[in-house]
Amino acid sequence: MLYSCKLKGACNLPVICNKKINTAGTSNADVPLAEPGMYQLDITLRRGQSLAARDRGGTSDPYVKFKIGRKEVFRSKIIHKNLNPVWEEKACLLVDHLREPLYIKVFDYDFGLQDDFMGSAFLDLTQLELNRPTDVTLTLKDPHYPDHDLGIILLSVILTPKEGEHVFQTQSLRLSDVHRKSHLWRGIVSITLIEGRDLKAMDSNGLSDPYVKFRLGHQKYKSKIMPKTLNPQWREQFDFHLYEERGGIIDITAWDKDAGKRDDFIGRCQIDLSALSREQTHKLELQLEEGEGHLVLLVTLTASATVSISDLSVNSLEDRKEREEILKRYSPLRIFHNLKDVGFLQVKVIRAEGLMAADVTGKSDPFCVVELNNDRLLTHTVYKNLNPEWNKVFTFNIKDIHSVLEVTVYDEDRDRSADFLGKVAIPLLSIQNGEQKAYVLKNKQLTGPTKGVIYLEIDVIFNAVKASLRTLIPKEQKYIEEENRLSKQLLLRNFIRTKRCVMVLVNAAYYVNSCFDWDSPPRSLAAFVLFLFVVWNFELYMIPLVLLLLLTWNYFLIISGKDNRQRDTVVEDMLEDEEEEDDKDDKDSEKKGFINKIYAIQEVCISVQNILDEVASFGERIKNTFNWTVPFLSWLAIVALCAFTVILYFIPLRYIVLVWGINKFTKKLRNPYAIDNNELLDFLSRVPSDVQVVQYQELKPDPSHSPCKRKKNNLG
Fold it and tell me: Membrane spanning segments where (predicted)?
């Protein structure tokens, strides 16, 4: 039965009318409003007809949002360049009560820009008949222009009663689609951006500063900027998760970077993944629409690795047969079998205690998000509870053993986005297998404690040789990254960190100069003798040998109890100050200073801020390698330095340089699309900086925050 009518009121939005329908189903119009979680609403989004044109070409790229009580509960895929789109998508929603109507909003997708509104409607759930499929036609309207004809949306809906225990399935209603569907992805799309050809000149000098944006659903990547060229060579790789069985559309746009004003649009193109065969690399030369030039890409679709979520009773590692299979899969004998599959991670999210009360009732509705690089899974929500029990098991495939597991607790909020309750970041190499631990929850900056602890049990199984080899290739980029913002405190912190690294070199230069000046005759005499001995007997292999001796010296200092590693309280204090500044900025967001009003200056300051961070991080990573901050990486450095020492001792330098030069000159001939990388920099990128060391530090639980103790105190 197809029916619709218009609600007379201020909004002029369509709604299902309350008309008598002769059916076998039971109407819920007179039924008392239900308790939370009592109804399941199954919706099939069929199609749209005669939708509004929002693009210059007279078409639109429509997608649909469903909202209940201002909370987005479903978002459809995008249908490109179509005013009569066919979706045929299904959504299963649990409805707390029937007072809140279902809002349907249609938008035109604009990559890189704000999406255009195409109309809205709402569905009165109290007028639906229980247990009966119903076809619905909704007329789209714009509240600001009620006379405009914006087309119609066709749905099929069925409302069925549900038991209250199933309310936990609503856990997917308050995060982005990335969080909501992350445990359903079916494959990986690997894109290598090779180059651009004959791009459009956007600057007055006849050149451009091009970069490329990629988008698949809510996954976004941005390439590096190539200055002053119309034929850029990027050689960058990005991995997307593929959620749809049939593939999907990757939107690609090229832009020209302009400091001080809005970036110029160069052109766009798309990749229809459903047209590409799997387990095969495709070389694509894509013509840019609405612009000039081509982009050259390599695209590979591969089957997904195992990423799953289950109840505590379903445990892969406790099943003897499955555990043996996993151990065999990562045994030393399978070194060269799928180098990207480094290891297996199992995370048991058991419970949390003493969480922060985020609601006015003095309770919270906590749920947990578990993240490893771009893999994200989440638990169900435990309502009205500060000591929730989830008892969920998450499994991930490890592609980089230097990854950091992030577990974040949120409070589900019906009227707005989820509230942050606490977070922990755990490097995989610091995990003790099979040990149930209470982790103190930290603030967003991971610098200090917040209220509550979370109990986790984590197991990591990996192949050490594969992990070592993967250390020498670029890290996986995250497609969800916070945008850089200008922060006075962050700029000061990065300046101080950089200054400290530079002062190490300055002090070393002063020390050497003091030897020349004979400030201390015994020290200068010893330095002079050492200089004569080293120069007279110098061989190239001595360079890695000295670094090897330094690593060994620090190792023996640590095991003898004379640890020379100092906790970086300066960085920790700076991070806490930055957090206070963030809170102040949130409260005084309307009071923007002069620096925030001048975009060009802000861009320059952000660039300086990031450069200082990179320089400081580089120096700190070198220091932390020799300080054995991450023993796995320090041992790997020892193995590499031993190999270099032996090679330089037995092989003449000219042969080594000859092999290096032949490899460099023939690399592009052997593999034209190889991504350039520097193994040393890739290695150092895995070593944490001092800021990350502070963020990854495990805090000790505070006995005064124990829930049991609080309860006793309250009784007294």
Answer: 525-558, 632-660
Could you tell me which residues come within 8 angstroms of residue 24 by beta carbon, excluding any fewer than 6 positions away?
132
Dist CA 73 CA 101 (whole Å)? 12
Return the pLDDT at 112.
54
Instruction: Give first-to-last CA distance, the chain, whole Å.
Output: 64
* Total residue length of the chain: 716
CA dihedral 213, 218, 219, 225 (to 10 degrees): 20
Q: At 304, which helix (H) or strand (E)?
A: none
187-303 and 320-471, same CATH topology: yes
The answer to whether 405 touches 371, Cβ cutoff 8 Å, is yes
DSSP one-letter string for 440-453: EEE-TTSSSEEEEE
Rounded to whole angstroms, the Cα distance separating 503 from 506 reads 5
Element (H, E) at 676: none
Q: Are 278 and 303 in contact (CB under 8 A)?
A: yes
* Architecture of domain 187-303 in this structure: Sandwich (2.60)
pLDDT given at position 152: 93
Q: Measured between alpha carbons, how far is 186 from 376 in angstroms, rounded to an integer?
A: 14
Residue 14: strand pairing partners: 6
Contact 189, 273 (CB under 8 A): yes
pTM above 0.70, yes or no: no
pLDDT for position 7 = 35
User: What CA–CA distances, in Å, run from 418 to 67, 175, 290, 359, 365?
Assistant: 15, 7, 39, 11, 10
For the chain, give every domain's residue range: 38-162, 187-303, 320-471, 488-523+534-563+599-696
Please, where are the H alpha helices in 463-520? 464-470, 488-517
Domain 38-162 CATH assignment equals 2.60.40.1180: no
Residue pair 98/36 in contact (Cβ under 8 Å)? The answer is no
- DSSP, res 248: -
Q: Name 63's bridge partners.
A: 107
Q: Which superfamily does CATH assign the domain made up of 320-471 to?
A: C2 domain (2.60.40.150)
Cβ atoms of 21 and 135 within 8 Å: the answer is: no
Highest-pLDDT range among 300-314, 403-417, 642-656: 642-656
CA-CA distance, 285 to 271, in Å (whole number)?
11
